[in-house]
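Predict the assembly for these two chains.
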Amino acid sequence: MFAYIVRRVLATIPVMAIVALFVFSLLYIAPGDPAAVIAGDQATPADVERIRASLGLDRPFLVRFGEWVFRILRGDLGVSIFTNLPVTRMIAQRIEPTLSLMVVTLFLAITIAVPLGVVAAWKAGSWIDRGVMAFAVLGFSVPVFVVGYLLAYFFALELDWFPVQGYTPFAQGVGPWLSNLVLPAVALGGVYIALIARITRATMLEVLQQDYIRTARAKGAGQGTMLFVHALKNAAVPIVTVIGIGVALLIGGAVVTESVFAIPGLGRLTVDAILRRDYPVIQGVILLFSFVYVLVNLLIDLSYTLFDPRIRY
Amino acid sequence: MALLEVENLQTHFRTPDGGVNRAVDGLTFSVEAGETVAIVGESGCGKSVTSMSILRLIPEPPGQLAGSIRFEGRDLLKLSEREMRDIRGNEISMIFQEPMTSLNPVLSIGQQIGEALRLHQGLSKSQAEAKAVEMLTLVGIPAPAKRVKEYPHQLSGGMRQRVMIAIALACNPKLLIADEPTTALDVTIQAQILDLMRDLKHRVGAAIVLITHDLGVVAEVAERVIVMYAGRKVEEARVEELFRAPKHPYTQGLLGAVPKLGSSLDGTTERLAEIPGLVPSLKQKIQGCVFASRCPHATELCREVPPALEEKAPRHVAACHYAVKEAVAA
């Protein structure tokens, strides 16, 4: 088990290296010259050249890539072209809202989607099942920003249950923190809930056909025990896998959701950085997101052993 | 009053095309306390459906049960699902054909044996585990204290069937239904499992309904035999009587189809007897005798009038117009 973890952690190195290479190449692939942007409309070619030199943009690709990697390994993501603040500090300032949003969404999605999927499989073919599946299709097909605006309109403006937008730090109390996150989490979680519910239903349908479910019933187990102890544990591996893969959806969706609900998180930071061609910030954020994604999926892989004793690392 | 009295049991299934499959059609039999009764017949004759019907494990719909199944005088078909759960695994339990797939792969052996105990006897987790170890010892699994923490994939097929038996017997049921318990096992293991079942039967005192198509198993374990064909009982007798003097042509055919040890060596290279034809479709109501289409002695009468189950010899009934009647009155 320990050896496996070490191997898996080592295996993330090439993945992260490829991500780093890609992220770094952005600077060369993307249209537009950052030096010209920073210099502004009035600048002379000499000014632009000077800025380019100060950014190090005039040196060879591999040299700069090497330097960049070594800086990152020391925890230095560079300095924002636009604000002149260290990228690590900018990320640190913005990470709490995004992390909060993702954790709340994850929790909400799992607690809603898994029971929905289980019930849909149990009552397969009934109106409950059809209702859940219709909801899932809806979740897939309506974009986050539409759901977000609708939710904000009805539950914030009309009913006044939740604030329209903004973010309250966790340090100011769980209540205010959560009330600001409920609507964004529901908006962001739609697709995710749909995905998890569908996979849960499909996997459970298969598991419920198995002989050991009949054995459980022959023992006198009730519906609840049968569904949530005997069946769900067998269905857990595909469900957990999809939860892990779905974290990518959350990351992408967070960018849009934060814009809709004016949450000062990493998503907004990313959008702003892209609009300003603030390459160090873009690179830093993408690296962070990739790292989180790889880490989450490592944890998912390790969690398999909790659900299925046949899996040993 | 017998322990189990099945009367005119009908288990029908609605088919997707709107028809009805009469898997069990008017079956009547009883089981005395402590008795071992075998139900034999070929695939599709309704023997497994019968066993599942007794525990009401048939999904309804598409299944539909009628008639009555009285267990200690109570009609199981009239109980609520809640009351039925108290009986399953407690007073009536079941062993299935496939030990490889009948155990839950993600729960430990101890949990699976302990589940029925915790459910029906309200044992605590640790009490249930202690009892599970005891049950594993009873069914002859070595190192039970270690095995109880293991998972099904760590056990062989024979071991798993022993675990299934331990689960079934954990709550001291009055009736044990064994649906082809040895079919999926290899021959040496089959013998061990049969020995174990016989041994435990004497110790626990449970009645057994043994579902099988293996006449060797029947001869070895059962006291009474019910022969089923196309969802009905065609013959019933004590086991020695049935093997000595089968009355129904179907039973005669079944017994004739059993290879005899050494028959290929004594020079008479006779073909093994077979019953020509196939089991009739259960989707149409069968007129006359269910076996008429395959019976060598069938006449017009057989094709028109269904034969009643008649006592052809003392405590030996068969449903055949032409079966020889012995002196029943005597």
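Residues 98 and 184 of chain B are 6 Å apart (CA to CA). Residues 100-172 of chain B form one domain.
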